Amino acid sequence: MAPLSESQCAARLAVLGIDLENEGLVDEALGDQLRAVVLEELRTGRGRGGNSVLLVEYLALRALGPLAEQAAIPGWNHLYVLSFAGARPFVKVGRTGRFAGRLYEHRAREEREGNVLFSAWASEPVYDAHPWEQAVLRTLRSRHDQGKVEGERFYDLDPAAAMNVVHQQRIWVSPCSVGLPLPGRLSA
């Protein structure tokens, strides 16, 4: 089955009688408690396809806001950190010029493997995310158990630890604004 968008998750939850706004499920503390429950359910194999899994995916997509479905902006990149829960949880760090498409591809592949999107973050559009990505990957690889690293995947890594490194390595990003012309190009 194809991964659901944020609005599709919300609609499915509404059909199940779960009112996201009125039940306080968008509260960050409650979301953290829910993620802890789902993580344990997935690790033990008890949580496949339940309402709590759908809620966790909804919360991850909601955190991304419109970026989860936004069309690519030519010439701009995003650094992203995706956390997947399942029998072997991992954090994926990457960069792309078409974030919504990559997010969909990652979610589809991981869904087939029995994993669910647990948390997600993507940067503002930047001109060149490559130096930032490489600095983050280099730092994470130096700090994480090498037996638990496969390329851009870090198994059993706390997503908060990955985000700390992302913010520490932000120095590699040139400040840019979508409203400004790309470096080296003249505005019309």
Give descriptors for this structure.
about 190 residues, single chain, disordered C terminus, alpha+beta, five-stranded antiparallel β-sheet, 6 helices
Sum this structure up briefly.
By secondary structure, the protein is α+β, with helices and mostly antiparallel strands. Helix content is 41%, strand content 14%.
What can you see in these coordinates?
- This protein is α+β, with helices and mostly antiparallel strands.
- The chain has one domain.
- It is 41% helix and 14% strand.
- The protein contains six helices and five strands; from the N terminus they run αααββαβαββα.
- It has a five-stranded antiparallel beta sheet with strand order 3-1-2-5-4, sandwiched between helices.
- β4 and β5 form a beta hairpin.
- The longest helix has 16 residues.
- The termini are far apart.
- 30% of the residues are buried.
- The C terminus is likely disordered.
Topology diagram in text:
Elements: H1 6-15, H2 28-43, H3 51-64, E1 78-85, E2 90-96, H4 99-112, E3 116-122, H5 130-143, E4 149-150, E5 153-155, H6 159-168
Antiparallel strand pairs: 1-2, 1-3, 2-5, 4-5
Helix pairs in contact: 1-3, 2-3, 5-6
Give the uncertain stretches in residue-range form. Answer: 183-188
Overall number of strands: 5
User: Mind describing the biggest β-sheet?
Assistant: 5 strands, antiparallel
Structural class: alpha+beta
Shape: globular
Neighbour order of strands in the largest sheet: 3-1-2-5-4
What amount of the residues lies in strands?
A: 5-15%
Q: What is the mean pLDDT?
A: 81
